[in-house]
Write a structure and sequence with these properties.
4 helices; globular; 0% strand; 120 residues; single chain; mainly alpha
Length: 120
């Protein structure tokens, strides 16, 4: 008398996925308004970079995970050296930086896939 759970993956429409991503980037960027918010943002981005290896299916290639890991840590590290350390400029630095990491990761993933397809 076995009970098996089946999982049917549902595809999220592109616009909905984009809006959810932007909302997440804005939410993650809000610590920038706190006192010394750049340091809080840096800490959260270092932790977020570990999510590159969570085994999800967002990337077609394993190399993309390393690219995302490196870019998120580079974005986090620059918060230690760039002033000011709190306020709207930190929020926008985070928000734009996270968008660039996401876009670059996507483009790198597609470039690796094209290169692999060409070799085959």
């Amino acid at each position: 008398m076995g009970w098996e759970q089946t999982y049917e993956e549902k595809r999220v429409p592109l616009v909905v996925g984009f809006l959810l991503g932007e909302a997440m980037f804005a939410l993650v960027s809000t610590p920038g308004f706190a006192k010394n918010g750049a340091y809080w943002s840096a800490a959260s981005q270092h932790v977020m970079s570990l999510g590159s290896f969570n085994g999800g299916n967002w990337a077609e290639n394993d190399q993309t995970r390393w690219v995302s890991f490196g870019m998120l840590n580079a974005l986090a590290t620059h918060h230690y050296f760039v002033k000011p350390t709190s306020g709207a400029s930190v929020f926008w630095r985070n928000f734009i930086g996270l968008n660039m990491v996401g876009l670059t990761s996507h483009l790198v993933d597609k470039a690796i896939s094209k290169r692999k397809a060409r070799r085959s």
